[in-house]
């Protein structure tokens, strides 16, 4: 059963086809009712076809309509058992305490929703690919470059060669030297950053395993990625997409890092000890 289907529908809504949006809108507004409807009845209520509903299920990585209903039933029961976290809109006259509370709730929600849209098999494949890779290159732009730099720092501590460049021209020129022994990671919240997509496309043509970290939904970066790691998006009036996406992206990077570290446990422990020792005298 595919859990978190309601989250996937909310996250991917903007990228759905027109016929899929009709189905998605009806499900979001009437989830309890949909569980009791046949596929023919739902098609009539959405003013669409049964084939469109089947395509919509496939878009959500579901085997069919029956799995959609089972997943909805699971999500609804989970919602009833917990207090819903509402990501409130930040007001200009909010106190500092209130701002901290709302931002914290939003960060928690970004991580929780990312768990729902992230495919664990894809995460395992990413960990395996990075563990076996000769070199890892990360392509990014804007705020996502901060996440790429964080990944470079983390992997450097356990002696895994990771390269990232803030300059987009350097990203493109480095991508032509990748081989089938390498991994290229593209980080783009929108999934539409031209330079990142181009670098991944070149890396893929050179035989490298390509991984993308991007917001859930359909976007061009998926077409050049062998492994797709979806994040959830949280927005409000003041908090930019870059702020929200960074939390979710960092969570995935941490999960990959720990996953690889666990595979090389003895080696990693030694690396962490020597790197900790070499910077010890830098502390007061």
From TrEMBL:
One of its GO terms (molecular function) is DNA binding. Gene3D superfamilies: Glucose-6-phosphate isomerase like protein, domain 1 (3.40.50.10490), Winged helix-like DNA-binding domain superfamily/Winged helix DNA-binding domain (1.10.10.10). GO terms for biological process: carbohydrate derivative metabolic process. The keyword Plastid does not apply. InterPro entries: Homeodomain-like_sf, HTH_RpiR, RpiR-like, RpiR-like_SIS, SIS_dom, SIS_dom_sf, WH-like_DNA-bd_sf. The keyword Metal-binding does not apply. Signal peptide: none annotated. Keywords: DNA-binding, Transcription, Transcription regulation. Residues 3-79 form the HTH rpiR-type domain. Residues 126-266 form the SIS domain. This is RpiR family transcriptional regulator. It comes from Caloranaerobacter azorensis H53214. The lineage of its organism: Bacteria, Bacillati, Bacillota, Tissierellia, Tissierellales.
């Amino acid at each position: 059963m595919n859990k978190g289907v309601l989250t996937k529908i909310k996250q991917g809504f903007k990228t759905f086809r027109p016929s899929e949006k009709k189905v998605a809108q009806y499900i979001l507004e009437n989830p309890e009712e949909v569980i009791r409807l046949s596929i023919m009845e739902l098609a009539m209520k959405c003013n669409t076809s049964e084939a469109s509903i089947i395509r919509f299920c496939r878009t959500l990585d579901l085997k069919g309509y029956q799995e959609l209903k089972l997943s909805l039933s699971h999500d609804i029961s989970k919602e009833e058992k917990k207090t819903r976290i509402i990501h409130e809109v930040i007001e200009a006259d909010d106190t500092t305490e209130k701002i901290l509370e709302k931002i914290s709730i939003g960060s928690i929600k970004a991580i929780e929703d990312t768990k729902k849209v992230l495919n664990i098999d894809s995460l395992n494949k990413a960990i395996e690919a990075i563990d076996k890779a000769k070199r890892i290159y990360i392509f990014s732009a804007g705020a996502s470059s901060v996440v790429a730099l964080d990944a470079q720092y983390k992997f450097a501590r356990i002696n895994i060669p990771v390269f990232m460049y803030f300059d987009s021209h350097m990203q493109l020129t480095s991508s032509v030297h990748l081989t089938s022994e390498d991994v290229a990671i593209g980080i783009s919240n929108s999934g539409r950053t031209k330079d990142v997509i181009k670098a991944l496309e070149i890396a893929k043509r050179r035989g490298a395993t390509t991984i993308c970290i991007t917001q859930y939904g359909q976007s061009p970066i998926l077409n050049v990625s062998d492994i797709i790691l979806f994040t959830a998006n949280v927005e409000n009036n003041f908090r930019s997409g870059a702020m929200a996406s960074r939390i979710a992206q960092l969570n995935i990077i941490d999960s990959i890092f720990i996953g690889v570290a666990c595979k090389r446990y003895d080696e990693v422990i030694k690396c962490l000890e020597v790197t900790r020792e070499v910077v010890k005298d830098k502390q007061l």
